[in-house]
User: Which sequence fits this backbone?
């Protein structure tokens, strides 16, 4: 049986800088062996959904801006770096970078958390299109959308880490 420390060490970063999700899943007995991507994903998502809104907002705020300051400084987590690079966000033209910067600022001003999208399978044009559409969402709709995207990101990360 995997220990709590091993589980948290391995899966504590699946929800960006929010190890409390893995800790609670383990402590609540939601983790079953053998560990599978689907099983761990369902357990972590259940904890995320049950978390207080302030905690969910904390998870959202732990995510980096797309093509933002942390990416430029090389300070993204390995998972975020790989995901953003896969979508071409590490190869933006100056004009595209300026648009991402403008949209990131407007989005954070409006919603108080960064724009979050599961970038796997998307390119920079897809992401910009979604950014432009979602910036007009109500706060309630965008919170729900961002939380769903965080869960998608976690699921993709787990499929990268575990077999079915």
Assistant:
């Amino acid at each position: 049986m995997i220990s709590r420390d091993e589980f948290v060490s391995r899966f504590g970063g699946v929800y960006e800088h929010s190890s409390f999700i893995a800790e609670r899943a383990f402590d609540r007995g939601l983790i079953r062996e053998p560990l599978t991507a689907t099983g761990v994903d369902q357990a972590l998502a259940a904890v995320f959904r049950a978390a207080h809104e302030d905690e969910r907002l904390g998870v959202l705020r732990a995510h980096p801006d797309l093509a933002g300051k942390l990416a430029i400084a090389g300070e993204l987590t390995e998972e975020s770096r790989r995901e953003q690079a896969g979508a071409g966000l590490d190869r933006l033209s100056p004009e595209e970078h300026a648009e991402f910067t403008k949209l990131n600022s407007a989005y954070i001003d409006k919603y108080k958390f960064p724009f979050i999208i599961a970038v796997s399978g998307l390119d920079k044009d897809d992401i910009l299109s979604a950014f432009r559409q979602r910036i007009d969402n109500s706060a309630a709709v965008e919170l729900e959308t961002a939380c769903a995207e965080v869960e998608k990101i976690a699921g993709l990360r787990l499929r990268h880490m575990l077999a079915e």
Notes: The mean pLDDT is 90. The CA atoms of residues 116 and 145 lie 9 Å apart. The chain is about 65% helix and 0% strand.
